[in-house]
Design goal:
Length: about 400
C-alpha cells in the first residue's frame, strides 16, 4: 500500500474554503476582529476614542465581507477607517498593518484595469504616510530607522500584492480551463448529434436501396408470374421461388440494419456488406425476372476499398431497380472500370417496350448523389442518346496512403 503523509486540519479545511469563498471571508473578518481586540487601544465604550476604535474594527471587518462583491466600496471603507485610526491612535500597531495587507491582496485579486494598480499605489502611499507621521517609541527623530521600517512595510505590502497576483493568475487559468472544457463538451455534443444525423441518413439510404430494389423486383416477378400462371406454369413457379428468395434476403438485410441500432450489451451478428463481387448474384436475380442484363468489370475488384465498393454496389442496384421499374424488358448494360485511385460506373438501359412508366419518388437519385458526394465523386443521370433510354454514370475516387 502507498504511504500517505498525515493531513493537517488546514489541508482538510482548504477544499471547503475554496468551494465556499463567503465562508473564507467570514473567517477572515473574525480574525480581523480578534486582532483588533488584542491591539491597542482595547475595544471598550468607556472613552470616546475606544468607541471610535471599536467602530473602526467593526467597519473593517464588514469591509472584508464585502471585498468580493463590492471591492471598490470595501477598499474605500478601509481607507477612510485607517485614516480615522491614524487620528485616534498615536502609534501604529498590528491591526492597521493587517488591514493594509488585506487591501493590497484585494487590489490584485478583485480589481481590474487601472483600478488594480491605482488603488495599490494608494495603499503604498497611505501605509508610508502612516508610518512616517506616527510617533514610534524608541525611534524619535531617527529617520534612518524610520526609513528602514517604511521599507519593511513596503516589502510586506509587495509580498501581499504578489500573492494576490499569483492567486488571480491561478483563478484565471482555472476559469479558462473550465471554459475550454465547456466548449469541448459543446463541440463533442454537436459532433455526436451530427454523427447521429449522418448515421440516420446512412441507414435511411441503405433501407431505401434494400427495400426499393427488393420490392420493385418482387413486383415485376409477381406480374410476370400472374401472366405466366395459365400459359407457362413452370415459369410462374420459378418467379414465385425468386419472390420468396428476394423476400428472405430483404428481410435479412433489413434485420442487419436494425441490429446496428442495438446496444453494446446486445451485439448483432450481421451479414457481410455487399461489394462489387456480389454484382453477378444481383444481376442473376434480375435476369430471372426477365430483364436482359450484360455485366462487364474491367480491373481488379479486390483493389477497391470496402466503402467505395458498397457505394458502387448500391448505385448499380438502384439504377437496375429504376431500369426494371420504368423500362421493363429493355436490355441493360452495366460496366465498371477500376483504376488505381478511382472507380467508374455506367448503367445504361435501352428504350422501353411500352410508353407508360411508373411514377417514382426521386429519393433513389438523391440517395445516389449523396453517396457519390460523400466520396468526393461525380454523378450524372439522364437520357441516353445512343440507346434512347436512360443512363447513369458515376465516378468514385479514393486515395491510398
Amino acid at each position: 500500500m502507498e504511504a500517505r503523509a498525515p493531513s493537517s486540519p488546514v489541508d482538510g479545511l482548504r477544499p471547503v474554503l475554496r468551494g465556499h469563498p463567503r465562508l473564507a471571508d467570514a473567517g477572515c473578518a473574525v480574525i480581523v476582529v480578534l486582532i483588533g481586540a488584542v491591539s491597542a487601544p482595547t475595544i471598550s465604550f468607556a472613552a470616546p476614542a475606544q468607541v471610535v476604535y471599536a467602530i473602526v474594527v467593526a467597519g473593517c471587518s464588514l469591509a472584508v465581507l464585502l471585498r468580493r462583491s463590492r471591492p471598490i466600496l470595501a477598499l474605500s471603507i478601509m481607507a477612510v477607517l485607517l485614516a480615522v485610526h491614524l487620528l485616534i491612535v498615536a502609534r501604529p500597531g498590528l491591526f492597521p498593518g493587517v488591514i493594509c495587507l488585506i487591501a493590497a491582496y484585494t487590489t490584485q485579486t478583485q480589481l481590474a484595469g487601472p483600478w488594480r494598480w491605482g488603488v495599490l499605489a494608494g495603499t503604498y502611499v497611505g501605509a508610508t504616510v502612516g508610518v512616517a507621521m506616527s510617533p514610534i517609541p524608541g525611534l524619535g527623530e531617527d529617520w534612518r530607522s524610520r526609513g528602514l521600517m517604511i521599507a519593511a512595510v513596503g516589502t510586506a505590502l509587495t509580498v501581499a500584492a504578489l500573492t494576490g497576483v499569483v492567486r488571480r493568475n491561478a483563478r484565471d487559468r482555472y476559469d479558462l480551463a473550465v471554459e475550454r472544457a465547456r466548449a469541448l463538451e459543446a463541440q463533442q455534443a454537436s459532433e455526436q448529434r451530427l454523427a447521429a444525423v449522418e448515421e440516420r441518413a446512412r441507414i435511411a439510404r441503405e433501407m431505401h436501396d434494400i427495400l426499393g430494389h427488393s420490392l420493385n423486383t418482387i413486383a415485376v416477378q409477381a406480374e410476370g408470374a400472374r401472366y405466366a400462371l395459365h400459359t407457362d406454369p413452370d415459369r410462374a413457379d420459378r418467379a414465385l421461388a425468386d419472390i420468396g428468395q428476394l423476400s428472405r434476403a430483404a428481410v435479412n438485410e433489413v434485420r442487419d440494419l436494425i441490429d446496428v441500432l442495438r446496444t453494446e450489451n446486445d451485439p448483432a451478428t450481421t451479414q457481410p456488406t455487399p461489394t462489387l463481387r456480389d454484382l453477378p448474384s444481383l444481376i442473376g436475380t434480375l435476369q430471372r425476372a426477365g430483364t436482359p442484363i450484360r455485366l462487364r468489370i474491367d480491373g481488379e475488384v479486390n483493389d477497391v476499398p470496402g466503402h467505395v465498393g458498397l457505394a458502387a454496389y448500391r448505385i448499380i442496384q438502384e439504377s437496375l431497380t429504376n431500369a426494371i421499374t420504368h423500362a421493363d424488358g429493355a436490355p441493360v448494360v452495366v460496366r465498371t472500370t477500376i483504376d488505381d485511385h478511382s472507380l467508374d460506373v455506367l448503367v445504361s438501359n435501352g428504350r422501353p417496350n411500352h410508353t407508360g412508366t411508373r411514377p417514382g419518388s426521386g429519393h433513389g437519385l438523391i440517395g445516389m448523389r449523396e453517396r457519390v458526394l460523400a466520396l468526393g465523386g461525380t454523378l450524372d443521370a439522364g437520357p441516353d442518346p445512343a440507346t434512347g433510354g436512360w443512363r447513369v454514370t458515376a465516378h468514385l475516387p479514393w486515395s491510398r496512403r
